[in-house]
């Protein structure tokens, strides 16, 4: 798949941008803070309906937008996307709610028809490489869960539905636990069990779907990432799913049996809820479930999040992202859009060339950003059309990059 056309209006630093995109992609050169990352952010939002950056969606709306028109601040992203069997137009609109300060209303259109986020995610598939990705290894479990959720949601709409419903159930169950805590209800008594029974079942229904989806996805990602890491460094990398549940009886050879995985997950989830109920009532919060899961990165037998060097952590993330690209290609039958945001400068020359070669072998549309044309000298990516980003406009780059 590839983006044929991209339009931004009042998004970040762009008052307006209309740009046709070559099927092969582009090299985009520009100074720091010129808007390169914002352009890639917009493409990721079209794929996931969410910004890959932390912070609120209000920050994506350009300061002062709407003032000349006398309307609330707004932003708009639109793209025409060519896929293997069809072409689609997807648009995301953001508008500040004038009645509630800070609240942003989001509207999504697919081929001109208004749709829900759950129906838009994955219509465009994209994989973003950025310098901040090293936090996937060294950062918090929440960042790794978020990565998993955004990745799997592009591949499996049922996973996204389960995730959405689980979030609502978790909120209701936590509210009930706080009430039981406040009223000092006996956690082992019939009253607590009876009141929690409905929400326990809902938590199990949607939580098991999430855990099962993560088991399958991380299992495949781990295999692919291990192969990529061996090519990059010659070493070993194990990417392992670390659930908050004890999944007794589940091993790698059984991950591709959906019915069995669901059975094992439910059994472990039920057992954990029963064992931890007194603690949950005492603390007033749900302490088991996919909202407490993690992912571990082990390189050559060592936990890279704790003991890995910055370089090892970075290579692990590059391997993971290449694996994600392979997984999406397997699932969709066509490569996702590759977005490389100023990552080449973070790697030494040897690993930079390996990443570039891997990216070109995938035969995907690649949009690569950097600050200097010399970054692509001798690179397989030098064949991409070059563009310059300056003062919010993108023009053909007159400064050549030697292939």
DSSP summary: helix tally:
10
- How many domains? The number is 2
Q: Mean pLDDT, as a whole number?
A: 90
Q: Can you tell me the CATH architecture of the largest domain? A: Up-down Bundle
How many E-type strands? 15
CATH fold name of the largest domain, please? Glutathione S-transferase Yfyf (Class Pi), Chain A, domain 2
H/E series: EEEHEEEEHEHHHHEHEEHHEHEEE
Overall morphology: globular
Tell me the structural class.
Answer: alpha/beta
Characterization of this structure:
This protein is of the alpha/beta class. It has two domains: 1-125 and 337-403, 3-Layer(aba) Sandwich (Rossmann fold), CATH 3.40.50.300; 134-335, RecF/RecN/SMC, N-terminal domain (Glutathione S-transferase Yfyf (Class Pi), Chain A, domain 2). Helix content is 43%, strand content 22%. The chain contains ten helices and 15 strands. The strands form three sheets. A six-stranded antiparallel beta sheet has the order 2-1-4-5-6-7. A six-stranded mixed beta sheet has the order 8-12-13-3-14-15, sandwiched between helices. Helix 6 (190-233) crosses helix 7 (258-283). The longest helix has 44 residues, at 190-233. It starts with a strand and ends in a 7-residue tail after the last strand.
